[in-house]
Amino acid sequence: MTKGKETKPHIGILGRRNSGKSSLINAMARQEIAIVSNTPGTTTDPVKKSIEIPGLGPSVLIDTAGIDDTGELGQKRIAKTHSALKTIDLAILVISENQFGDDEIKIIEELNDFGIPFFILHNKQDFQPLNKELAEYLIATYHTDVVEFSARYPADPDRLALIMKKLMPVTAYTFNTMLGGLIKQGDPVLLVTPIDTEAPEGRMILPQVQAIRDILDNHAVAIVLKESELEVFLGMMQPKPVLVITDSQMFGRVSKIVPESIPLTGFSIMLARYKGDFDNYLKGTPHLSKLKDGDKILILESCTHHVTCDDIGRYKIPRWVSEFSGKKLDFTIVSGLSDLPHDIKDYAMVIQCGGCMITNRQIINRLKAAVDAGIPVTNYGMVIAWTHGIYNRAIAPFLNSEVKM
Questions:
Q1: Which residues contact 33 (CB under 8 A, 6 or more apart)?
Q2: Using one digit for the tens of pLDDT, what is the confidence trace for 31-50?
């Protein structure tokens, strides 16, 4: 289950089979967008539903399989539900008929482990009201809202929106600027955007588009060119750019053209600082100089795409890291937000892509197992800068001090 291109707030609907999760989604959307059945286990894999929520705007509800599913297939469905937790910003735990036990306790423990806010909704109020003692226990134990509701006869579904608005992390639905603090109104910013075999036909890659939009949102001036025109244009350009941002693969070439007096960074490093685990990237990147023969390196791509012989994650990153370290290394590539093929402790290092198509929470949760295990993490742009000897310069626009190589 991947969040994919959706960067809107994601709300997970969790609970036992037949607790009314799909009915709740229909009540919130005020239309039948989820299949409702009296047969337990109707919902199998997590399914996304886009809706508009008052106070939050465009959002995505994730309808999940029951946390009490049974049998071999049921256990696989439960695993999918637990895996979906990595993709959500807020959870609604649906209970009914006053049933609350080990299944709910386990899912709450996971929500707390990931730092995901949640509230508890007792559904089917029209069939059986919430027991007062249970409500008091839940509030006292979990310190969150406990709501009585009837998805069949929803009296005021908008009150759920008020609770979601209160609990939703602000970062899930507010716009954060990538370059705020680095540029100001009227500043010229130069973007070096190579057009190679990895560039999509007739358009630009997403980080480049995001950078242009961010520059415009900061009321600055975006100037875009290919690396082949950089030297001549930069020589004529007045005033000089306050910042140059280049494709990570052009770091080496561009850094020789752009004077040291002009700040230079890369699109991937910009993304790493904007919505990656930047502090842990700074700690982890120097481990590239400490790799040993036989070390396993995990490369995490956050989307699926057509693979070419110039693919940065599958071919260039492994080649550059191997050449830089001089060691025989074993690389594993995982696309999307799929489960990892091995225990995270099997790896000596984790390299995350720029993450242009997913959210900060997804990246943080994706890397959490490695960080908790003390395994160094970094990202594509920082790897490229380190292995090409220009790391300090590339991160300098975002730091007050340098990291020694």
A1: 25, 26, 49, 51
A2: 555 444 454 444 445 778 88
